Amino acid sequence: MASLHSDFVSNAWYAAASSSEVADRPLPCTLLAQRIVLYRSQSGRLAALRDRCAHRFAPLSMGDIQGETIVCPYHGMAYDGTGRCQRVPGQNGAPAGAVVQSFPVLERFGLVFVWMGKAELADPAALVDIDQYAAVAAGGWGLSRGYSLFKANWLNIADNLVDPAHTSFVHQRTIGNTAAEDVAVSASESQGVVTCGRWIEGAAPVPIVKRFVERFSRPGCLVDRWQFYHLKAPATSWVDFGAMDAGLAHTPQEQAAAPYRVLSYAFLTPRDASSTHYFSFQLRNFATRDAAVTAEFEQLYKATFDEDRVLLEAIQREEDRHPGLRPVRIASDAGVARLRRLIGTLQQKESEAAEK
Amino acid sequence: MASLHSDFVSNAWYAAASSSEVADRPLPCTLLAQRIVLYRSQSGRLAALRDRCAHRFAPLSMGDIQGETIVCPYHGMAYDGTGRCQRVPGQNGAPAGAVVQSFPVLERFGLVFVWMGKAELADPAALVDIDQYAAVAAGGWGLSRGYSLFKANWLNIADNLVDPAHTSFVHQRTIGNTAAEDVAVSASESQGVVTCGRWIEGAAPVPIVKRFVERFSRPGCLVDRWQFYHLKAPATSWVDFGAMDAGLAHTPQEQAAAPYRVLSYAFLTPRDASSTHYFSFQLRNFATRDAAVTAEFEQLYKATFDEDRVLLEAIQREEDRHPGLRPVRIASDAGVARLRRLIGTLQQKESEAAEK
Amino acid sequence: MASLHSDFVSNAWYAAASSSEVADRPLPCTLLAQRIVLYRSQSGRLAALRDRCAHRFAPLSMGDIQGETIVCPYHGMAYDGTGRCQRVPGQNGAPAGAVVQSFPVLERFGLVFVWMGKAELADPAALVDIDQYAAVAAGGWGLSRGYSLFKANWLNIADNLVDPAHTSFVHQRTIGNTAAEDVAVSASESQGVVTCGRWIEGAAPVPIVKRFVERFSRPGCLVDRWQFYHLKAPATSWVDFGAMDAGLAHTPQEQAAAPYRVLSYAFLTPRDASSTHYFSFQLRNFATRDAAVTAEFEQLYKATFDEDRVLLEAIQREEDRHPGLRPVRIASDAGVARLRRLIGTLQQKESEAAEK
Predict the structure, then answer these.
(1) CB distance from C106 to chain A under 8 Å?
(2) Does B318 contact C57 at a Cβ distance shorter than 8 Å?
(3) pLDDT tens digits, residue range C67-82?
């Protein structure tokens, strides 16, 4: 499996934890096969260090936060947020090598992001913009959240997120139905974002739409619905999904006025070559302040992602058993092909930079 | 462990499931280190396919049966019983490579058998004949069944099934006792079947005989009992075991008239190099329609096979730790030596055919 | 990991079990990556054999003791305490190769020790002497016992046992406190024993001392306490730990008269490269016949060793993930450096002897 590690794209912001998880105790996490400790110092400063004391390799995450430092549980060596050792009990000063690696951190959307590549390239502008997120506080959009660990390589999950076609088969209990089985998908790419989508016209609404829009749940009701899957390479996904009365014009104005619209964000963070953190939130345009709807949304999206997870984990096990397998391509793979090319370019750029 | 895989004999019928397990849902199973899906189409046709969609490697066993096809759970590709793809949703026709391997299947003795070698060599006549099985329906013989997974290489289990001597030590609570410890075993071979057996004369009956024959359970009662272990290479075993009053002639006629006789069949199917499916049934000549006896027989034979299993699994772990171990041979290994030679010949024939 | 196995020092007595565990059933154990069976024959003779029948590799520990022999559970072959086969059922005599390796054994301090190196070098005098152990029966010292399995390489545990400094951080709930954080440790070596220690003067007593000495538990009470950590290479440790009123002379006489003194012995036995048996007992100079104190001591020392164990197991996992890691050394590592040199010399002597 070792060779797959070179598949990671390092120069990117990766979601590592929710903001609320990084409180008064150090938090260990594994990102891109590296063990990291996140902590907030007493002054509130967020830091990400390699989770290994330089002395005898004890996990710093098993230690304590003291002032601005994190203190090793074994012999009390204290490191600041830049990874420099500020104290070695029993002696004056610290030996030259008493340093642990630190990583740039960024907090946004209620998540903590870590930059796993070259620190000098870390740019907050590289993170996706989400205008609607700012409108949550004022009730403009409703917010629900989720987290899952997928025991699957991140690339297979990214494939899934530029692949609206699979919803007709995998998600018949939630966000898909058989009406769309044969509706073709368009794929395009612009500025590092792959977009795949389709309109399904004059079709029965899918279960989740029926559940939340009363008039769409009536027998015989038909809607026009859209699915647009965006993936900003390497691993930030958002799905624009909605339903309107059948026959209306397919314009941004009508989409903005639709009774059901959800923007579903997913931040994939490779844990290692065969498992992936899946941080997600959904912004909905209805019942925006209704806590019961939020709770039900979180449960329904968890169920939906589990439908993907079970399948992607089975595929991962098969790929692990047979490393050389080559897929047969079908028409709905157009987005996947674009995405893999795009990521391949990023990977190559990084491996060329590493060789210099 | 990889090299041990070449030890499988492929050109044989291997029990894969009981008939009743292959109903309205696809059934995954692993045979000879290959993952297979068994299914019955709506018309009742039995099929065995490689359990992996050609597109993105999803397990077909997680999909549905539709008409004569099995449908992939990920994107709805439908394969018929020959493994050809009959439908790709969202496009016309199927790409050239959209094929999965199919395997010959055969249903007999309430079991589903799969031929894992060259399809053109699959011959129903290669399966063992069991005249007594046909007599079960009319009450001529009583039938009990069992299944165990042994975490042991199939060859070590096959050894055990041409080795009546071990019963005196391993099975003292069920089918053996100390009376036979020093009774020698004869070994012979004919037409691909190794036979090892012995008569134990004028000895106390073993526990299972005492349990079911009232007069043999009386204090001081002595019997003549026989154990004949047959193994048709590579992996079909039957044991002819019975007890009669001490001193009677050891003739087929007296054996047929004995108050206790059991033909115990075992179909070994390598799951992989270090685990083996053990499908079994027993035919008994007494209480043939008594469901309570059947239930107790199933429990007793499960206990007996567990005595073997615990030991064979410990041996397997030791062989895994020390791959180069060479056994010291003793007198009772005569049948094992014949069996290993016979299987070696089959393996060599297959590897020579593979090289051509 | 295989290369680490050569790190074992074979020519030493290793604790394998407590005396009471080796009773009327054979006892399997793994020492230095080798599987051994311990048994007491009917005449009471203790034996240690390789736990593998020469015939078909069944574990002898799954068999029975009969007279002076241990009997294989598979075919009844019986081995005596020297490892020679005395019986093969079904034949006269035993084949030439029917021998299993035997190991020298020694019973002392309520423990069974096995010599894993060359039998001709096994010398009872190589085991540590403990005068105080003999005084337990007469109530001169109180005795408590413990056992833990550490999933860590034995060398990292040995390091821990010549490292009094870690107690200030790891054991603040039991045998350490922050008063000693900056008190330097001296290290010396004599006749194969590394000794590291310090006096902590005029400091608050540590929790375990407060618990058992009433006057040391009073608010504001200060004591002088000592910690002397001895390790006889390769893997026998004893810690001399006590507390007296602050200001008394630091002489053997005052130490002998101190209200709290504990000699804590640990016998480390590598199970394999990444796990270690940790047999221990403590001799205390107070409440020597009080069973409740013994029970509480066993619980408190278990808790103390668990504090080490959790940390050492985390370090082991990190070393397994990154085999090439090199520690940064700090002042308190002086004893560790001496110990590693000493053990390195023993290892080299053994590997040179093996090459001859």
Answers:
(1) no
(2) yes
(3) 999 999 999 999 999 9
Judge whether C336 and C163 are in contact, CB under 8 Å. Answer: yes
What is the number of alpha carbons within 13 Å of residue C351 lying toward its C-beta? Answer: 11
pLDDT over 70 (residue A342):
yes
Task: Check if the beta carbon of residue C60 is closer than 8 Å to that of residue C43.
Answer: no
CA distances from B50 to A285, B47, C290 (A): 45, 10, 69
pLDDT of residue A333: 94
Distance from the Cα of A91 to chain C's closest Cα (Å) equals 6
Question: Which of A290, A243, A258 has the alpha carbon at shortest distance from A139?
Answer: A290
The answer to whether the peptide bond before residue C73 is cis (omega within 30 degrees of 0) is: no
A-C C-beta contacts closer than 8 Å: 70
A72/C183 touch (CB, cutoff 8 Å), yes or no: no
At B211, is the pLDDT very low, low, confident or very high (cuts 50, 70, 90)?
Answer: very high
pLDDT of residue B2: 31
Contact C76 B169 (CB under 8 A): yes
Q: Does A4 score more than 60 pLDDT?
A: no
Contact A328 B73 (CB under 8 A): no
A291-301 residue pLDDT tens: 999 999 999 99
Q: Which amino acid, one-letter code, is at B181?
A: E
The per-residue pLDDT of chain B, averaged, comes to: 94
Place of tokens 């104290």: A87
Instruction: Report the predicted TM-score, pTM, of the whole model to 2 decimal places.
Output: 0.93
Chain A residues touching residue C319 (CB < 8 angstroms): 57
Alpha helix stretches (DSSP H) within chain A: 131-134, 154-160, 167-170, 207-212, 252-257, 291-321, 334-355
Cβ partners under 8 Å of residue C278, min gap 6 = C146, C147, C148, C149, C150, C157, C266, C267, C268, C305, C309
Please check whether residue B187 is in contact with residue B334, taking contact to mean a CB–CB distance below 8 angstroms. Answer: yes
> Residue B75 and residue A330: Cβ atoms within 8 Å?
yes
| Residues C41-68 pLDDT 10s | 999 999 999 999 999 999 999 999 999 9
| Residues in A 139-198 with any Cβ partner in B closer than 8 A | 156, 159, 165-166, 168-170, 181-185
- B324: helix, strand or coil: coil
Selecting from B159, B165, B328 the residue whose C-beta is nearest the C-beta of C90 gives B165
pLDDT confidence of B149, banded at 50, 70, 90?
A: very high
Residue B3 confidence (pLDDT): 34
Other beta carbons within 10 Å of A220:
5
